TrEMBL record:
Name of the protein: Peroxidase
Subcellular localization, as worded in the UniProt entry: Secreted
UniProt GO BP: cellular response to oxidative stress; hydrogen peroxide catabolic process; response to reactive oxygen species
Keyword field contains Oxidoreductase: yes
Amino acid sequence: MKIATFVALSVAAGVFATPAPQILAPTLTICAPGEITRNAQICCKWFKIGKEVQNELFNGGQCAKGARRVLQDSLVASKLITETMQLTSTHISGGGADGSIIAHSNIETTFVPNRALGPTIEALRKIAIRNSVSFGDILNFANAMGLSNCPGAPRLQFLAGKSNSSQPSPPGLIPGPGNDVNTILNRMADAGFSASDTVDLLSAHTMASQEALNLNPAAARAPFDSTPAIFDSQFFIETLLKGRFFTPGGPGFGEVTSPLPGEFRMQSDFTIARDPRTSCRWQSMMADSNLMATRFRAAAAKLSVLGFEPKALTDCSDVIPTRVSIVRAPHIPAGLTNSDVEGFCAGTLPPNFPVAAGPLQTVAPALP
């Protein structure tokens, strides 16, 4: 792993060889053809940065490994800083979604959940320095851009103008795949997130794959559901299906059996889906990908400004491309039935889903 050095950056706007912004209306500005924003002074430069992010991280706009890793970066980098830590700790003075995983990658990439993130973090560092933007801004922006490449994903809020001041995250601040539900919910509550918020944020696992939890090469990029290139509710369905298989060489760290060969299931997802405090919220999103996307957008917006005052930031969300719709409806994977669904929301039955035709299929690795 490459040792990264903290670089203090200015968050002043960079100077670019682009046409002067054209005022379209009192609240809209054309930065360049097809690039319209409400906050020209701060936001126009992000159209240029968006092109760099798409080309250098996302292979010209693909929903693949780059998008998954940046999404993971943005979640683990938010640090879930608590009021108690802000008041009493000299080690952590700000915290939250400050991009510290980039500034202090020599520390934070040694944490088990972050071990595969080094190349993505270094790419983000270069783009941030090149454009004189903060690490917190580039991380949230890249997350929103990456998700925009994935069918079904919501258009995330992007607020620009974070400072570049951060301290390294202590180990264990982010709940991990091997934690029990009490530990996870207590940690999230300490940072101001409810049990429902926690489930909503786990919608990100519809795009997830494992890269450091099972180091067997045959298990590389094993996804958490059967549609890792689509932001849909299959993750919520498949996590409630009866488990039968480990990934090759498994169990990996925090792994429990999944319903499909080739699919990785985290213990924490399994238990949260079945806990009485979270099971009804989980079940409510099984049949509704739009509801899932709406709730994730709200929870991600809350997470993205953790440790910052939103009113001090500038809304540049109109730089983010609009979402691409989903074609396929929620379903039970081939070879399984609705009787394989384990419902845990008291007093209710899980939805009844159409079943894909054919025999049981091995889930292919997520795109590299």
